[in-house]
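From the methods appendix. Each design record in this collection lists the tokenized structure first, followed by the designed amino acid sequence. Records were kept in a plain field format so they could be parsed without special tools. The example shown here is representative of the layout used throughout.

RECORD:
FOLD TOKENS (86 positions):
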């Protein structure tokens, strides 16, 4: 059986280990404190870039839509001419 002094020394060592772990945990949490904001800003910049790409694609679709509308108008003119020939 361990003596009282050995048991106290063992418990003191365990307490020191726990205190060290708590200090490391606290330091880690403090280091992480600013990271969510930075991560959010990075994500926002990424989403803005993606939105910009969609704006470019939307612009291209608008140009294609205008071309189809022009072709549609031309076909209507051709249809009118065919009807007039009948």
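DESIGN:
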């Amino acid at each position: 059986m361990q003596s009282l002094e050995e048991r106290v020394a063992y418990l003191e060592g365990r307490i020191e280990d726990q205190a060290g772990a708590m200090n490391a945990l606290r330091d880690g949490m403090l280091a992480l404190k600013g990271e969510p904001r930075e991560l959010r800003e990075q994500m926002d910049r990424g989403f803005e870039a993606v939105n910009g790409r969609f704006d470019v694609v939307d612009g291209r679709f608008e140009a294609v839509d205008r071309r189809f509308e022009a072709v549609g108008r031309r076909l209507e003119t051709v249809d009118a001419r065919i009807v007039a020939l009948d």
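APPENDIX NOTE: The radius of gyration is 37 Å.
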